[in-house]
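Good morning C.,

I know you're traveling, so I'll keep this short. The sequence:
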Amino acid sequence: MPGTYLQAFIKNGRHFFVTEIKIYKDGMIDCWGFVDFEGFQEKIRSGWVRTRLPEGARVSMMESLNFTATDVKAGVEEVEFVKQVADEILSLNKKPTSAHFCGEALRQYKQDPTESNRERLRTAYEAVPKHMRLFLGDMDSKDWEYKRILDEKNSD
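The C-alpha coordinates, ready to paste straight into the viewer:
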Protein backbone atom coordinates (compact mmCIF):
# COMPACT_ATOMS: atom_id res chain seq x y z
CA MET A 1 0.00 0.00 0.00
CA PRO A 2 2.39 2.79 -1.21
CA GLY A 3 1.89 6.24 0.21
CA THR A 4 3.33 9.57 1.18
CA TYR A 5 2.92 11.98 4.06
CA LEU A 6 2.45 15.62 4.93
CA GLN A 7 3.15 17.16 8.29
CA ALA A 8 0.42 18.69 10.40
CA PHE A 9 -0.74 18.83 14.01
CA ILE A 10 -3.14 16.61 15.89
CA LYS A 11 -5.01 18.45 18.65
CA ASN A 12 -5.54 15.94 21.39
CA GLY A 13 -6.83 17.49 24.59
CA ARG A 14 -5.02 20.75 25.24
CA HIS A 15 -1.88 19.78 23.32
CA PHE A 16 -0.92 19.92 19.67
CA PHE A 17 1.24 17.06 18.44
CA VAL A 18 3.48 17.40 15.38
CA THR A 19 2.79 14.34 13.26
CA GLU A 20 2.87 12.85 9.81
CA ILE A 21 -0.48 12.62 8.08
CA LYS A 22 0.04 9.47 6.04
CA ILE A 23 -1.76 9.32 2.70
CA TYR A 24 -2.18 6.07 0.81
CA LYS A 25 -2.86 5.17 -2.80
CA ASP A 26 -6.19 3.54 -1.87
CA GLY A 27 -7.40 6.89 -0.46
CA MET A 28 -7.01 5.97 3.18
CA ILE A 29 -5.43 8.55 5.45
CA ASP A 30 -3.77 7.86 8.78
CA CYS A 31 -4.22 10.78 11.16
CA TRP A 32 -3.81 8.85 14.40
CA GLY A 33 -6.36 6.39 13.03
CA PHE A 34 -7.28 5.39 9.49
CA VAL A 35 -10.08 7.26 7.73
CA ASP A 36 -11.19 7.64 4.14
CA PHE A 37 -11.09 11.06 2.46
CA GLU A 38 -14.54 12.03 3.74
CA GLY A 39 -13.51 10.97 7.24
CA PHE A 40 -10.35 13.06 6.87
CA GLN A 41 -12.42 16.10 5.93
CA GLU A 42 -14.45 15.53 9.10
CA LYS A 43 -11.22 15.34 11.15
CA ILE A 44 -10.28 18.75 9.69
CA ARG A 45 -13.74 20.22 10.40
CA SER A 46 -13.73 18.94 13.97
CA GLY A 47 -10.29 20.46 14.63
CA TRP A 48 -8.57 17.10 15.26
CA VAL A 49 -6.17 17.73 12.33
CA ARG A 50 -4.73 21.25 12.21
CA THR A 51 -2.24 23.03 10.03
CA ARG A 52 -1.99 26.20 12.12
CA LEU A 53 -1.32 26.84 15.77
CA PRO A 54 -2.94 29.41 18.01
CA GLU A 55 -0.66 31.72 19.99
CA GLY A 56 0.36 30.03 23.24
CA ALA A 57 -0.37 26.50 22.03
CA ARG A 58 1.35 23.67 23.90
CA VAL A 59 3.21 21.62 21.29
CA SER A 60 4.72 18.16 21.62
CA MET A 61 7.18 16.84 19.09
CA MET A 62 8.27 13.28 19.48
CA GLU A 63 8.23 12.21 23.09
CA SER A 64 11.07 14.33 24.34
CA LEU A 65 10.31 17.84 23.07
CA ASN A 66 7.53 20.05 24.43
CA PHE A 67 7.20 23.79 24.02
CA THR A 68 4.78 26.70 23.96
CA ALA A 69 4.31 28.34 20.57
CA THR A 70 4.84 32.09 20.56
CA ASP A 71 5.05 34.60 17.74
CA VAL A 72 3.02 32.19 15.61
CA LYS A 73 2.92 32.81 11.86
CA ALA A 74 -0.10 31.35 10.14
CA GLY A 75 0.55 28.17 8.21
CA VAL A 76 -1.34 26.55 5.40
CA GLU A 77 -5.09 26.99 5.72
CA GLU A 78 -6.88 23.74 6.50
CA VAL A 79 -9.10 24.02 3.40
CA GLU A 80 -5.96 24.28 1.25
CA PHE A 81 -4.41 21.32 3.08
CA VAL A 82 -7.46 19.23 2.16
CA LYS A 83 -6.90 20.15 -1.50
CA GLN A 84 -3.27 19.10 -1.19
CA VAL A 85 -4.20 15.74 0.33
CA ALA A 86 -6.67 15.16 -2.54
CA ASP A 87 -3.90 15.94 -5.03
CA GLU A 88 -1.53 13.56 -3.25
CA ILE A 89 -4.06 10.72 -3.62
CA LEU A 90 -4.42 11.51 -7.34
CA SER A 91 -0.64 11.65 -7.76
CA LEU A 92 -0.15 8.31 -5.99
CA ASN A 93 -2.61 6.83 -8.48
CA LYS A 94 -0.77 8.47 -11.40
CA LYS A 95 -3.82 10.60 -12.20
CA PRO A 96 -3.79 14.30 -13.14
CA THR A 97 -3.77 16.70 -10.20
CA SER A 98 -5.23 20.18 -9.90
CA ALA A 99 -1.92 21.63 -11.16
CA HIS A 100 -2.20 19.54 -14.33
CA PHE A 101 -5.75 20.78 -15.01
CA CYS A 102 -4.62 24.33 -14.32
CA GLY A 103 -1.83 23.98 -16.88
CA GLU A 104 -4.31 22.58 -19.41
CA ALA A 105 -6.65 25.52 -18.78
CA LEU A 106 -3.76 27.95 -19.33
CA ARG A 107 -2.85 26.30 -22.66
CA GLN A 108 -6.49 26.42 -23.75
CA TYR A 109 -6.77 30.10 -22.82
CA LYS A 110 -3.58 30.95 -24.72
CA GLN A 111 -4.94 29.20 -27.83
CA ASP A 112 -8.36 30.83 -27.50
CA PRO A 113 -8.31 33.83 -25.12
CA THR A 114 -12.05 34.16 -24.53
CA GLU A 115 -13.69 35.24 -21.31
CA SER A 116 -15.18 31.75 -20.83
CA ASN A 117 -11.70 30.22 -21.11
CA ARG A 118 -10.39 32.79 -18.63
CA GLU A 119 -13.13 31.72 -16.21
CA ARG A 120 -12.17 28.05 -16.73
CA LEU A 121 -8.59 29.05 -15.94
CA ARG A 122 -9.73 30.93 -12.82
CA THR A 123 -11.68 27.89 -11.59
CA ALA A 124 -8.71 25.58 -12.28
CA TYR A 125 -6.27 28.02 -10.61
CA GLU A 126 -8.44 28.27 -7.49
CA ALA A 127 -8.59 24.46 -7.28
CA VAL A 128 -4.80 24.36 -6.79
CA PRO A 129 -3.87 24.68 -3.11
CA LYS A 130 -2.79 28.30 -2.51
CA HIS A 131 0.60 27.31 -1.13
CA MET A 132 1.26 25.13 -4.20
CA ARG A 133 0.42 27.78 -6.82
CA LEU A 134 3.97 29.14 -6.78
CA PHE A 135 5.06 25.87 -8.39
CA LEU A 136 2.79 26.28 -11.43
CA GLY A 137 5.37 28.21 -13.45
CA ASP A 138 9.12 28.05 -13.47
CA MET A 139 11.29 28.95 -10.48
CA ASP A 140 11.66 32.56 -11.57
CA SER A 141 8.16 33.40 -12.77
CA LYS A 142 6.24 31.19 -10.31
CA ASP A 143 2.53 31.71 -11.02
CA TRP A 144 2.96 35.20 -12.46
CA GLU A 145 1.54 34.30 -15.89
CA TYR A 146 -1.63 32.92 -14.31
CA LYS A 147 -2.07 35.99 -12.11
CA ARG A 148 -1.48 38.37 -15.02
CA ILE A 149 -4.17 36.70 -17.13
CA LEU A 150 -6.64 36.43 -14.26
CA ASP A 151 -6.13 40.06 -13.27
CA GLU A 152 -6.64 41.42 -16.81
CA LYS A 153 -9.77 43.43 -17.51
CA ASN A 154 -12.33 41.92 -19.84
CA SER A 155 -10.90 42.04 -23.34
CA ASP A 156 -13.92 40.53 -25.10
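Safe travels,
E.
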